[in-house]
Amino acid sequence: MLPKTGTLLPRPGVTVTEQEYASRICQALRDDLGGSRAAAKSIMRWTGASNRTARNWLNGAASPSGYHLVCLARGSNAVLAAMLSMSGRPELALSADIRAIEVALARAVGAIATLRRERVHRAVDY
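and the corresponding C-alpha cells:
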C-alpha cells in the first residue's frame, strides 16, 4: 500500500498529450473527410456540434470531448482507429476493418449476382 502523499505515479503504457490528441483526431478526420466545408457539415451531423467547433477539430485547434469523440468514432473508422491507437489498443481497430471488408464483400457478391441475372436474361433473349 502506498501512502497518500499527493504524488502522482506515472501511468504505464501510452501517454498522449492534449496537443497530440487534437492533432491525431484532426488527421483522422482529414483522412476520412478531407478539409472541405462538406467535411465540417458531416461532423456537425454526426455530433450536433456547431460549425466553428467542427472546423476547430478539422484544423487541430481543439479536440473533442468524450461524448463528441464517441459520436465521431461512430461515424468515422479513422477516428475510431486513432482513438484505439492512442489508448494503446490498436489491435482492436482490426474488428472495424473486418466489418468494412464484410460490407465490401457483400456488395461485390450482390454485383456479381446482378451481372449473372443480366447475362441469363441476355442469353434467353437470343
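(Above: one complete record from the training split.) The helical segments are 18-33, 37-47, 51-59, 66-75, 77-86, 93-125.
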